[in-house]
Amino acid sequence: MTVPRLIREDAQLLVVDIQERLCAAMPADSLERMVGRTRALIEGAKVLGLPIHVTEQYPKGLGHTLPQLAVLLGGAKPVEKTEFTACVAGIADRLGGRKVVLVAGMEAHICVFQTVRDLAERGFSPVLCVDAVLSRSEVDLRVGIDLCRQAGAFVTTAESALFDMLGRAGTPEFKAISAAVK
Q1: Is the pLDDT at 152 greater than 60, yes or no?
Q2: Are 125 and 99 a contacting pair, CB within 8 Å?
Q3: Per-residue model confidence as pLDDT tens digits over 20-55
Q4: Is 3.30.2290.10 the CATH number for 8-181?
Q5: N or C: which end of the chain has fewer CB within 10 A?
């Protein structure tokens, strides 16, 4: 498999189920890292002009998107779902013609994996930003990443994906993305 070049005009970001009560069950250090990388992805996607999509798994039970991420999303209304995959009608209708989908979220071995698999089956190219995904246990995280790779995801990091789409330094976009990934 060749390593794809990420082109911003063909890319979009999907943030899967980073919700208050689900986050409370995650290891604190890992959660802090994942939220920081997801924040960088959201800020970078905005700088690069990428569409951003967000889902919430059963928000009545798991709460809403973490406030520190929700504020970055502005008024974007998350798509509520009860299916584990984020490829539900509300999201699938929004994905449109951009075929590269950067994926961040929780949990890697359930909702993220099933989303990646469904994206690949629908002809999209999922890009798993491994530092922006999480599961409650380390073994589930590792297995989730492996399952995503087997399902067809290109595995990278948030910073690598953003700078690949940026392509060059010395621009206002470079400065903004550099600040976002710090």
Answers
A1: yes
A2: yes
A3: 999 999 999 999 999 999 999 999 999 999 999 999
A4: no
A5: N
What does the chain look like in DSSP terms, one character per residue? -PPPPP-GGGEEEEEE--BHHHHTTS-HHHHHHHHHHHHHHHHHHHHHT--EEEEEE-HHHH-SB-HHHHTTTTTPPPEEESSSSS-SHHHHHHHTT--EEEEEEE-IIIIIHHHHHHHHHTT-EEEEEEEEEE-SSHHHHHHHHHHHHHTTPEEE-HHHHHHHHH--SSSHHHHHHHHHH-
Domain boundaries, the chain: 8-181
Tokens 């400065």 appear where? Answer: 175
